[in-house]
Protein 1
Amino acid sequence: MNGYDFIYYCDSFTEIGLGHLSRGIDFTNEFSSRFPFYKIAIRGIYSESAMNFISANLSGKVTVLDKDDESISAISFVDTMFYPGSLDINYDFFRKLKTHTKKLILFFDVLDVTIPPEVDIYINYLPYTIIRGKTENQKVFVGFKYLPVPDAFFNSNYFGINGDIVCIFGADKDGYVIFNFLNIIIQEKFCKRNIKVLLSPHYSKEFKEELSSKYQKIAFLQNINNVHDLLNNAALVISTYGNSTFQSIAAKKPNFSIAFQDFQNNYATRLEEEGFTVNLGTFSNIDENKLALINNSNYLLTQNEKLKVAFKTPGINNLINVINNELQTI
């Protein structure tokens, strides 16, 4: 066909972070590797740092389209935050996109969703999502078995109780809000391991240098090649709620969530109810009693065993199967 077989729509800039783009790159890289005969692209709004991340990580088999490109596709796969800081859906976006695609898939990991009528398939890896507006002809795939995390994370079987504290922080317009957390974590009662902090590429080089100067006990990292290698040496992971939360869970590392925004805090609370994270609250209001669990060996060992049972196989494989099966019908 003219156009593309598959276009992954995702955005990345400071206000919404790197998670959607990171997932898009993981998925399209794996998909293009398994099915090199498909014509695949990603499209979205990308900041300069996001474009650098794309250049460093996206397969050469995948095309990067301009945000205003109107190429047609057999399947359009939408994974983004339509309004920064809000979980509302831009329904007009789907009405316009439907004129350029044969099948429209919405990948939207929210707690409560009303599926746009233009959507053919809805996917959400959160098993506890509430779905509204589903029509008879719409297909729905829900549950952790669709968690879009690559094999490399699931295949990480190493767990060392004396490993590092790895922190993975997304971007926020007020980056200085993380100072409150750093001031707490370096206290002697918490800082009993090596601490590594991976910063979003959306933070400036100058900001990273300022942190390194101010907090010399902490190793600050940015733009690394393999997050799973970093996690492999971790005893636990503290992350802003999002893609990195589930990467660490897939790698069987006890996760502690922390939030910039209220909705992240709410989502972490719901995941905590399932027993898969410890919600520390927001950067401005950290629960130090819960943070003390980072030095509780019994908790860390128990959580590692729990994650081994709950997250055995890569959900990205199931997602790829869904897309490939749909392409066979077009």
Note: The chain has twelve helices and 16 strands.
Protein 2
Amino acid sequence: KDRDGKIQLFAIDKPKSEWSSPLEVWKEAYKHEQFITSKINTLTKLATDESDYTALPLLHWFVNEQIEEESSTSKVANTLELIGNSGDGLIMLDRELAARTFVYPTTGGVQ
């Protein structure tokens, strides 16, 4: 509203809801994070090319956040590859993931 921009919304395909294994889930999650990173990078380049300096701080926050997201999903996928079919390994990973805490993001002044 502040900048009189116009948006156009498109339909979103129904997401996949069944996987063959936890490893497949996390591999797809990692691929999706890479896809999101590419879209954020495209937006950042567009904002830079268009001299849209007010958009850049917010986009840079997302750029940095994606580093963490890709790292996190990749780490879990790699761990699952090592675990294989070990039930004990899956329980240990499940406990590790359950112990994670959400940290509310700071935007460095961007609201």
Note: The chain has a mean pLDDT of 92.
Protein 3
Amino acid sequence: MIIINQFIFIIIITLFNILVYSKTIINIFN
């Protein structure tokens, strides 16, 4: 269970980073 929880946590962090990164890219192009 611990491994699964860590995996889910990593996915959430990765998705959050992608979201922030894409917003930064959009701001640069605007």
Note: Residues 7 and 30 are 35 Å apart (CA to CA).
